[in-house]
Specification:
Number of helices: 4
Order of helices and strands: EHEHHHEEE
Strand content: 25-35%
Distance between the termini: 39 Å
Radius of gyration: 14 Å
Number of strands: 5
Helix content: 25-40%
Structural class: alpha+beta
Length: about 90
């Protein structure tokens, strides 16, 4: 069993949950866990494809390719790819 925490309104709106308890099963990586749970985590796929998903495993910076095991806590948060160069207003 792993704990999955969804941080930030963008991901919470996509997933519909703030915290999930999931069986790790045969999943050996974060990506495999997402693929094995399409009903609860499938909405993360567009964020992965756009490279807008930040991942931590047990409070350490990770990626979707990072390994996981039972008892781990995985946190997902959204990171927009929009860059800010400091010379213009931030779009709302």
């Amino acid at each position: 069993m792993v704990t999955v925490m969804i941080l930030g309104m963008t991901l919470r709106n996509a997933i519909g949950e703030t915290e999930l308890e999931l069986q790790a099963g045969q999943a050996k990586s974060v990506k495999q866990l997402i693929q094995a749970n399409p009903d609860s985590l499938g909405a993360l796929q567009p964020f992965i494809e756009k490279r807008e998903l930040l991942v931590t495993v047990n409070k350490k910076i990770a990626s979707v390719d990072s390994s996981i095991k039972d008892g781990d806590t995985i946190r997902f948060s959204h990171q927009s790819q929009a860059s800010y160069d400091g010379t213009r207003d931030i779009p709302m």
